Records
---
Amino acid sequence: MSFDVTPIGQVESPLADPAEAPKQGHEGSPAAWLVFEPPVLDGLADIRPGDRVVVLTWLHRARRDVLRVHPRDDPANPETGVFSTRSADRPNPIGLHPVQVVEVDGRRVRVANLEAVDGTPILDVKPHL
Amino acid sequence: MSFDVTPIGQVESPLADPAEAPKQGHEGSPAAWLVFEPPVLDGLADIRPGDRVVVLTWLHRARRDVLRVHPRDDPANPETGVFSTRSADRPNPIGLHPVQVVEVDGRRVRVANLEAVDGTPILDVKPHL
């Protein structure tokens, strides 16, 4: 059994390489744009600057066959089950990114502190937990 | 472009009908079991009672063609873009459920306050945001 997810947009960011991306958004990530597909714009109508949202992404460069990792890619950290970590490598590589909306310009939404790399597909946006 | 997600397990809950499910986990949801597929058990190895985690689910009964809703299904609430709401109906119906682990029994993990209905597919588990 499996299900299809279809991106609703993608990330535009100066971060090109996952190796440069900080492990957490608050560790110095640049501002980035979320660029949405025209068919979903009605769903964005109530997003406003200042909103705190969670962006769900598809971590398209991740490995899906990994179940144990050294947290933060540091071999000094003991190997840990991926469901206790934020590793991008995991069976369903869905990223959760808590961010704040800075600007809304049509189908482009600028957010602060997004650690996803340029071109990352966006799956969903929700109010902050 | 689309991507395949494959469930890593499913929810066992006394909640059978989405109409009975509370809108938020803290509004009186019962305890439920997360039952994981044997191939992913290595990823669960470090989950412990007391852990606060976010469970990602596939809301398999949701409608994917909905972009505006009346929040909490109350027609008195003004229609709102789904990305500003927790509606299950949305283009990629991925649920985010912050819960606390109560018990770990092999491939079964009991959690408190999960509002997902019985049989809901589980996509991922991550540390709390």
Note: Chain A has a mean pLDDT of 92.
---
Amino acid sequence: MAPTSLARLSIVAAPLYREELGAHLRDLRHRRGERLADTASRAGVSTQYLSEIERGRKDPSSEIVEAVSVALGTTVGDVAIAVGHRLRDLARAPGTSLRARAFALAA
Amino acid sequence: MAPTSLARLSIVAAPLYREELGAHLRDLRHRRGERLADTASRAGVSTQYLSEIERGRKDPSSEIVEAVSVALGTTVGDVAIAVGHRLRDLARAPGTSLRARAFALAA
């Protein structure tokens, strides 16, 4: 494996906070059976912006995370704990999800 | 108590993520007995910027939180879990720390 590939794997092995935050918020929305527009409207953000947050493209401000969390019936504290556990689980299971992520990026 | 005071108390009762993130990172740095410049240098950020993060003035990007967390010998996941518990504790104990915060703001 070339050094560049190793570097890439290292980056993949450390998912960013915004990526797992977005995935968690999307999971919460799906569990409620809501469309992006439903949640975005209650949170006071645009559908497009919420979509970008869910895909981990944006680091939302604390105010936006608060608004979206409340719109999803939860709190910023509970969201942070859940996202932290997602990140911790990913860091501890390099043989499963992280490898899958690396393959997905390499494809 | 006047309505404005109630509104202020309401704001104080919902601390923002960046405020508790900053307080937690500052606690971690203090436990290591480091100066702002020490940690900032290893994280690759300016001392002034780390100071603003610690005071909850800035919502740092996921990359910056990652760099500061690593510089403090921890991980983004563990930081998020700790910050989430700080926020949850504050929300559950309005008679103690939140009142102290309200008094501090009113002073």
Note: Chain A touches chain B at residues 14, 16-19, 59-63, 65-66, 75-88, 90-91 (CB under 8 Å).
